[in-house]
Each structure stands twice: as C-alpha cells, then as structure tokens.
Amino acid sequence: MQLSARMLELLNTQLTNELYSAHLYLSVAAYFEAVNLKGFAKYYQEKSREEHKHALLFFDYIADRLGRIQISTLTEPPTFQMYAVLDVVTMVYDHEQKISAAIQEIIPVAINTEDTATRVFAEKMIMEQVEEEATANILLEKIRFIGDDKGALLDIDEDLAEKD
After folding, report:
1. Helix (H) or strand (E) holding 124
2. Rounded distance between C-alpha atoms, residue 119 and residue 73, angstroms
3. Distance between CA 92 and CA 66 in Å, rounded?
C-alpha cells in the first residue's frame, strides 16, 4: 500500500522535526559547554544523537514504503547565550511536547486512510516520546527544585556526566 500524499507530507515533516531536534540539542550542548557544565553538555550531545537516530527511523520508514523523502531546511536553533539553565531545560521540555503533538497528528490520518503500518509505526514513536517527555520533565523539576543552589546544580551536572 502506497502512502497517501497527506501521510507522506506528515512523515517528511516529522523527519525534518527530528533533524531539527538533533540540531537543537547540539546547540543546547554547546551552551552548556560554554558555561562549563560538562555533564549537561555530554547529556545533550547524547540526546542529539538519539534525535538523529529517530530521524533515521522516519527516513527508513518512508523509504521502505516507497515514499519520496524530502528534507526541509532546518531553522537555526537559539544560541542560548543569555539564558539561565532553567530557561534552557524548560525550552527542551516544551520542545519535546511539540514533537509529541506532531507525531500524534500522524495517527488519525493513518486510521482514516486504513494505513495500519504507519499507525503502528507512529504509536511506537509516541511511546518513545512518552519516555523523552518524562526524562525532560524529571530534569526540569530537579532544576526547579534546586532554585539558585549552585552546589546542587554542580551535583546534577556530575550525575549527568556519569550517565551512559
């Protein structure tokens, strides 16, 4: 079964969204590198790699369904030069919610066009997003909890540096 034009548009949009996420998280890592929070930098470099892998899942899925892959121009991510850590981590959480919403748009189109394979694929990606949002929220809540406590921020940074 060939992908509908609307489905192909949604999948290609999500492919670009995932590439932007990888780009964004690399920018976030650069910010943390600049403010010498090496654990945060390492963590967001890994998140960037994960988002690139998600993009490749969409790429491969479109190719497997014989769709035409179209990668749109990526918007330049913020540089975060004048941001506080809380602002950056909040923006990451908000971004993950936007990605979830974009993937959610695929499911009703898949149901309406009786495209079971794409529905199952999108549901798998949504479950990945549940984990991504939860992880982003946990870090956000930790940052909110510590407030201006620089020692606690450094403890979180050290914990993130040790994550694999």
Report:
1. helix 116-146
2. 26
3. 33
